[in-house]
Amino acid sequence: MGTVCISVDAELGWGFFDTAEPPMGRLNRAVWGWNQLRELCDRYGIPTTWAVVGHLCLDDCDGVHREHPLGAERFERERTEWSTRQSLRFGPSLVDDVLSADVDHELASHSFSHPDFTVESTTDAVVRAELSQFEAVTDDYGVDATSFVFPRNHIAHRELLVDRGYRCYRDLSPTRQLEPLARRQLEKLRQTTIGSPPLVRPRIDDHGLVAIPASLYLFGFEGCGRNVAELVGTDPIVRQAIGGIERVAATDRLFHMWLHPNNVTTLADVDRLEAIWQHLAAAREAGRVDVMTMGEIARDELAAEPQYA
Ligand SMILES: [Zn+2]
Ligand SMILES: [Zn+2]
Fold first, then answer.
1. What CATH number does residue 49 fall under?
2. pLDDT value at position 231?
């Protein structure tokens, strides 16, 4: 029986905090999208890994964060453009809702304030502060996060994750690991003809962390391509996701979908997810697939690893 995992990068405005022109139309719907996604998980009983930006757990802040090595400069937008945009910066009740849901979701870390881990300014000291400040703000929830999703999926400083007790992270999908040209060709082929996102296997990396590759980004096919595809009938992402669930059922592999709650901005987006969640719940009900969080996958992977004295 195959396994299906869903991970979400729960960040409200933080994914665009340091971009020149954040997509405000999308971000203005971020709280709505978050609630829609959580309700879908409730309705179909789908446990999900919520990789939360730690800053969301705060009720308020001074916008300076003097205790952070990147300090006031890094957080300037909190004091200027976004000074009155609480709903882009804070969401403790949204995090509460996830943790108090009937479904047993996993709280994972997506860092404290979403810096790119691969840029020069993100030093070891910055990463340590990002990890410890995440821990400080999530401590109140009584949760010890052991799964990590890197901001922008830019993987670096893994040894510092080990130091803080993390056990796994979301790795790039096998197609993201290809050369750009090959990747573009494959993406094009996938969008126009076959719907076969990769099935993957978790593996233990050279730091002893479980790398859990992604299979399919659920909002990776937007714009005019999507509109044309919808006109002719089937949402191609729904087709790919259902194809992935069906294919993984006959294997011992993993099918790992991911998205941001702030991708969900319209009822058509909710329909897309509902078609997938419904299919997944039925496949699980029929005993054809397991649905697991990243933390559960890592636990099993580490338990299966032979121990050498
Ligand atoms: Zn702040
Ligand atoms: Zn992110």
1. 3.20.20.370
2. 56
Domain that holds residue 133: 2-304
Spacing, Cα 266 to ligand 1 middle (Å): 28
Alpha-carbon radius of gyration of the chain:
19
- The ligand whose atoms approach the alpha carbon of 83 most closely is 1
How many CA atoms within 13 Å lie on the side-chain side of 217?
A: 18
CA of 55 to the centre of ligand 1 (A): 7
- Kindly report the pTM of this predicted structure: 0.92
Phi, psi of 156 (to 5 degrees): -165, 165
Confirm whether 208 is domain-assigned: yes
Question: In DSSP terms, which residues pair with 211 in a beta bridge?
Answer: 169, 203
- Measured in angstroms, how far is the CA atom of residue 113 from the centroid of ligand 1? 8
The fraction of the chain above a pLDDT of 90, given in percent, is 83
Ligand nearest to the CA of 54: 1
Q: How far apart, in whole angstroms, are the C-alpha atoms of residue 150 and residue 160?
A: 13
